[in-house]
Amino acid sequence: xxxxxxxxxxxxxxVAVCGQSEQQAYLFSYFNGNGDGLxxxxxxxxxxxxxxxxxxxxxxxxxGKDKLMRDPSIAVDDQGVFHLVWTSGWWDQGxxxxxxxxxxxxxxxxxxxxxxxxxxxxxxxxxxxxYNGEDQTFYIFWSSTVPGMFPEVATSDSEKGxxxxxxYVTTKDFNTFSKTQVFFNPNFSVIDGAILxxxxxxxxxxxxxxxxPPEKNIRVTSNTQAVGFPTTVSAPITGNYWAEGPTxxxxxxxxxxxxxxxxxxxxGAVRSRDMTYWEDVSxxxxxxxxxxHGTAFAVPESVLKxxxx
Length: 309
Hints:
By secondary structure, the chain is mainly beta. It has helices at about 10-20, 300-309, and strands at about 25-30, 40-45, 50, 70-75, 80-85, 95-100, 110, 125-130, 135-145, 165-170, 180-185, 190-200, 200-210, 215-225, 245-250, 255-260, 265-270, 280, 290-300.
């Protein structure tokens, strides 16, 4: 396959701008432990994933109350610049951000105080960055609990009343941002969103986080634009296990959705040709040991070769 089919819309434009026509590879950003920093794995078939540089840390976090890097999400723009956002602490009101031209050398890390205007916000979890090449705009969305803002859902003792909804901002340069708004407000506690654009539609994958009774599964909804998703979602596309951190990736004729089977301490996947029927292929995928919630994205083969060197 000589041209890129990718998670982020900017990559195909990047290829056109650079005049490149080369084989593509796939990368997976992730963290280990409680949030040690940015790790990367690579694949050529979407099934076998291998840690880059013996599971090295490519960027260690230095911001946030807890100085963590959890849930690292990467999108690439038209010029081939990689933009990274992450969960910087368990109870922060902002998220971490840095950028890189090669995934090796990174800009200064900064905090984006996305929930500063929402008094009492308990957390800002699992930010995802999606680049829409049509309007050269980045959409950053995440989950937060703002007490009293939404109808309550029943929670277990361990969830301590957490009632998440998703919020978002847009930006073109990561210096100025739109006002924070509600992104997705279904009738359940929702975290871990990820967007895939395919055949003119935008697909949003989310985790139903309800804990009493527990759901802990991945659902999908779709729309003709990157905001305003219908809150009517599919039945679970994952199986009889707890799953979180979905990340979609187009590989040939399939769309794969990878996710963290966090209770089983392993990664799983489902795939689909038509975005309706989902085949569980967890027994067909392999990932580095200890991998946690991350993002899959496509890159030119030359980017992977530089990382490996």
